[in-house]
Design brief:
Shape: globular
Radius of gyration: 21 Å
Number of helices: 7
Order of helices and strands: HHEHHEEHEEHHEE
Largest sheet: 5 strands, mixed
CATH topology of the largest domain: Heat Shock Protein 90
CATH class of the largest domain: Alpha Beta
Strand content: 15-25%
CATH superfamily of the largest domain: Histidine kinase-like ATPase, C-terminal domain
Number of domains: 2
CATH architecture of the largest domain: 2-Layer Sandwich
């Protein structure tokens, strides 16, 4: 970022992202067409005369990976097209699994292990689009904190209370300095922290949490990493 004119750099980056969003539907369409051809060719391998078990295994693997890619593209398009502002009853665990699936490649490449545990009662009231955006921001920040560090871990824990459901995302990274922590959620130009993109992911996430009647908080982890906790309203008890 050019410190002489950071706002101009923000605007240029925002414009780049807006153009990318407009290009995305055509790109997804073309890639899906290619995946259909790949899937069809793999199916023909099964039907080919004299195809042995090894060929069939390879054809099955091709179809499985093509199906996974198609699912990811569908998720990506759904995320970019969703403009709903309404809150609804939703599953936090399902939202976490969806976000992790969208980051699977990066997490695997970086060698980061992930866990999801906590209460079986994971129902909360929130906006699915807002929730996914918050989760992706938290995962990406954790990935960046763990880049280049062996044994990286991201743990997600869901805890249900009487009127709030907590979703904590913890990493075993280096943690944050006092100065970074002090300015973490401030709506200002980004400071020199290792967060990519526009540098406003956490500020936006805090705003999105509050739009859903929730909160987003930070605390140092016991092992020196970071813990971000999202609290959302619990569903009302029937009849109350």
């Amino acid at each position: 970022m050019d410190i002489r004119n950071p706002t101009a750099d923000w605007l240029e980056r925002a414009n780049q992202l807006a153009i990318t969003a407009r290009l995305l539907p055509n790109t997804v369409h073309d890639v899906n067409n290619a995946l259909q051809v790949i899937t069809g060719s793999a199916e023909l391998l099964d039907l080919a005369a004299g195809a042995d078990d090894d060929v069939r295994r390879r054809g099955l693997a091709i179809r499985q990976h093509a199906s996974r890619a198609t699912t990811f593209l569908t998720e990506l398009m759904t995320f970019t097209r969703d403009t709903s502002e309404q809150s609804q009853r939703l599953s936090l665990r399902a939202a976490v699994e969806r976000a992790l699936a969208m980051r699977r490649y990066s997490l695997t490449k970086l060698g980061i292990k992930t866990t999801v545990d906590g209460d079986d009662n994971d129902a909360a009231v929130g906006n699915p689009r807002y929730l996914l955006q918050i989760l992706l921001n938290l995962l990406i920040n954790a990935e960046q904190a763990l880049t280049g560090r062996p044994g990286g871990r991201i743990g997600v824990r869901i805890t249900a209370g009487d009127d709030r459901v907590l979703l904590a995302v913890a990493d075993n990274g280096p943690g944050l300095s006092d100065e970074v922590e002090r300015r973490l959620f401030l709506a200002e130009l980004p400071i020199a922290v290792p967060f990519a993109g526009l540098g406003i992911g956490l500020t936006v996430s805090k705003e999105l949490a509050e739009r859903q009647g929730g909160t987003l908080m930070f605390a140092p982890a016991a092992d020196g990493g970071s813990v971000f906790t999202l609290a959302l309203p619990a569903p009302a008890v029937d009849g109350h």
